[in-house]
Amino acid sequence: MTTLSEPVRILIVGINPETNAKIVGTVNEDKSILADGFVASNNPECDAELINVIKQSTYGAVILGGGLRAQQDWYERIQNIIKSNSDLPAVGVKGPTVNYVKEALTTIGVLKG
Description:
Elements: E1 8-14, H1 17-28, E2 33-39, H2 44-56, E3 61-64, H3 66-69, H4 72-85, E4 90-92, H5 98-107
Parallel strand pairs: 1-2, 1-3, 3-4
Helix pairs in contact: 2-4
């Protein structure tokens, strides 16, 4: 008898709605990961919304997209929001593909394999 493990649930935070939707859709094709997307804006209202999302959900990790990573101050603020409001690991990815997401999740020990 084979036992299937539950997929790792993640939140993908990005700044481009089209790119975020595309990577979330592609990642969700992989049965080992269940992703939700969050499109960030550089304002306090968005910060508050992100806090609510991470506090009210059962994610295993937060992935920070490359567009966000390119804006260092904003990237660091988002990381600090996540760190201050949850125990979730937050990690940036090298590119918008499933392999990069899986690599990042494996590096932080959230995804085995």
